[in-house]
Write a structure and sequence with these properties.
Bound molecules: iron/sulfur cluster
Distance between the termini: 39 Å
Oligomer: single chain
Radius of gyration: 20 Å
Length: 173
Amino acid sequence: MAAPESGKHWADNARCSGQDPELFIPLSDGPREDPDEVRQLQGIALNRPLNFCASCPLAVAAQCLVESLRLDDEYGIRAGLLASERSALRDSWKHRIDAEAVSAVLRGVPVVLNEAERGEVISRFAADPALNADHVAWGLGIPRKYLWQLVREHNQSSALAPSTAIASGADAG
Ligand code: SF4
């Protein structure tokens, strides 16, 4: 995938930039619908949004799809796929852990993660006192205080022994 020009977000080059977002959320389309029925019902009304996607730069469309899967977007057309067509993909991505994305966030690089990846970041941070809280909070895009709260919740749910759990309360703030 081509790297975005420096200082630019991938969505800046999106073909749909500036268009009404409603155009990309067809009526009757949703995660539990039958895509064939949606296409039949919507007919040519789908042409306009799908044409935008078809002419979108490939790197942008790929990023659009990946981000929608990471964010678990249930509705709307992404990369030319209806919400109903992305259901199976969404389900499989929910449990996928991209080790590179997790380690980038642990180093303080902001990356959009799915729920499983966020859980992995918290779990690794909770187990490794050498990791930098400011970096991890920045990578996750959350306040440091909230990071510590997540660590406490993780430690409680994992029932970690006090000797192995990070001193999550002591450094909160
Ligand atoms: S693939 Fe479609 S929805 Fe995604 S950015 Fe491009 S035009 Fe927009």
